[in-house]
Write a structure and sequence with these properties.
The chain is mainly β. The protein has one domain (about 5-175): Lipocalin. About 5% of the residues lie in helices and about 60% in strands. The chain has one helix spanning about 65-70, and strands at about 5-10, 15-20, 25-30, 35-40, 50-55, 60, 85-95, 100-105, 110-125, 130-140, 160-175. Strand 7 and strand 8 (about 100-105) form a beta hairpin. The longest helix is centred in the middle third of the chain and has 8 residues, at about 65-70. The chain is globular and about 50 Å long.
Length: about 180
């Protein structure tokens, strides 16, 4: 068996998140700069020896410059001090057709165990002869568990930003020779 390294295909990958605003609508954001490092034994993803995800907090984009600036501030991600989000997987397992990745997520220097649902999209050779693999990932976290504790309320007592953050990603990787 040989170790295979997989490199992120940035042009065909994305990571986004959703959170309730005023508990009546959902705001969507994304990270424009992120990376995934994956090492497998041959093409056996269940036997992956390394799965690491990192995102640049300062690349956050919610399509609103003022909101992005607030999210990078000390109220939320505190990008000046904690510029990176990281996830280090420790186990990839399946139950029937469902696959789950467990690992440690670090935001604002706070590390917590997280489960990520994984859908294997397949493995193919593209038109340039490169072997590529695709995954859809999703999950949810409590932002407050990671120190993202800004908790303003409206005059009527409604929460301005919900606690539950849902995330999803489309990840395409290129096999390295």
């Amino acid at each position: 068996m040989s170790t295979v390294k997989w490199k992120l295909d940035q042009a065909h990958s994305e990571i986004s998140f959703k959170v309730k605003h005023l508990m009546i609508t959902t705001v969507t954001g994304r990270f424009n700069k992120f990376n995934v490092e994956l090492e497998t034994e041959n093409d056996d993803f269940l036997a992956a020896s390394k799965i690491v995800f990192t995102a640049d907090v300062n690349s956050i984009d919610t399509n609103n410059e003022a909101r992005d600036k607030h999210l990078k501030s000390e109220d939320f991600f505190y990008g000046v001090k904690h510029g990176e989000i990281s996830f280090y997987a420790d186990e990839y397992f399946t139950v029937g057709t469902e696959a789950t990745l467990s690992g440690l997520l670090t935001i604002r220097g706070i590390q917590r165990p997280v489960l990520v649902e994984v859908e294997f999209g397949g493995i193919v050779k593209d038109t340039h002869g490169q072997t590529k693999v695709g995954f859809s990932v999703s999950g949810k976290i409590s932002r407050k568990e990671f120190g993202l504790i800004m908790s303003m309320v409206t005059e009527a007592g409604s929460v301005v930003v919900g606690d539950e953050v849902k995330f999803q990603g489309e990840i395409q990787l290129i096999k390295q020779s």
